[in-house]
TrEMBL record:
Organism in which the protein naturally occurs: Sanguibacter suaedae
Protein family per UniProt: Belongs to the RuvA family.
Cellular localization per UniProt: Cytoplasm
Native organism taxonomy: Bacteria, Bacillati, Actinomycetota, Actinomycetes, Micrococcales
Protein name per the record: Holliday junction branch migration complex subunit RuvA
Cellular component, GO annotation: cytoplasm; Holliday junction helicase complex; Holliday junction resolvase complex
Domain commentary: Has three domains with a flexible linker between the domains II and III and assumes an 'L' shape. Domain III is highly mobile and contacts RuvB.
Gene Ontology biological-process annotations: DNA recombination; DNA repair
CDD domains: UBA_RuvA_C
């Protein structure tokens, strides 16, 4: 198993990055929050896990070992694969997921695209006790006004997670209105995405 990677960031995409380690480029899938910390040409270290399937080997990267542990634990729940587990971490921090599971907060869990009422209840039932207690109080970071509008990146990421472009644009507008910003700065893509996902949770019945 590839437990970690340290190398030079060659490329950063909406849902993945390429790290060059020892002359080999590794494609690593990660959350928008993790990807927002990477800069092309800079050195980076990620905790990783390799998911092996009959026809593929996919590498997932995380900001720290805690995120990786939650990612792996989430996949012990029936019906949860790596893509859905990563979507869970795109919406919630590890502590946010711990808190939602511990409190039986179905509404918080259904904010994740692909998780409905029954799926949320299954997560609560099957993950209870596996994630441990939250170490802090989770909170969403507010978007900061910055030069340059990068709303298209947020829209593309939301569409990739299963939302329509129209709903994505409406959610971003709500987030910007709430924070008083008039555009999405280059460093604000991850926090606006997380806030937009929380807003979109209200569209799930």
């Amino acid at each position: 198993m590839i437990a970690s990677l340290s190398g030079t960031v060659q490329a950063v995409r909406l849902d993945s990055a390429v790290l060059v380690v020892g002359g080999v480029g590794y494609l690593v899938h990660a959350t928008p929050s993790t990807l927002s910390t990477l800069r092309v040409g800079s050195e980076a270290s990620l905790s990783t896990t390799l998911v092996v399937r009959e026809d593929s080997m996919t590498l997932y990267g995380f900001a720290d070992d805690d995120e990786r542990a939650v990612f792996e634990s989430a996949q012990t729940v029936s019906g949860v694969g790596p893509r859905l587990a990563l979507a869970m971490l795109a919406v919630h921090t590890p502590d946010g997921l711990r808190g939602a599971v511990a409190a039986g907060d179905v509404k918080a869990l259904t904010r994740v695209p692909g998780i409905g009422q029954k799926g949320a209840q299954r997560l609560i039932l099957e993950l209870g006790g596996k994630l441990g207690a939250p170490s802090g109080v989770p909170g969403a970071a507010a978007a900061r006004p910055a030069a340059g509008d990068h709303a298209d990146q947020v829209v593309d990421a939301l569409v990739g997670l299963g939302w329509s472009a129209k709903l994505a644009e409406e959610a971003i507008a709500v987030v910007l209105a709430d924070t008083g910003a008039d555009q999405v700065g280059s460093g604000d893509v991850a926090v606006v995405l997380r806030a937009a996902l929380k807003t979109l949770g209200g569209h799930r019945g």
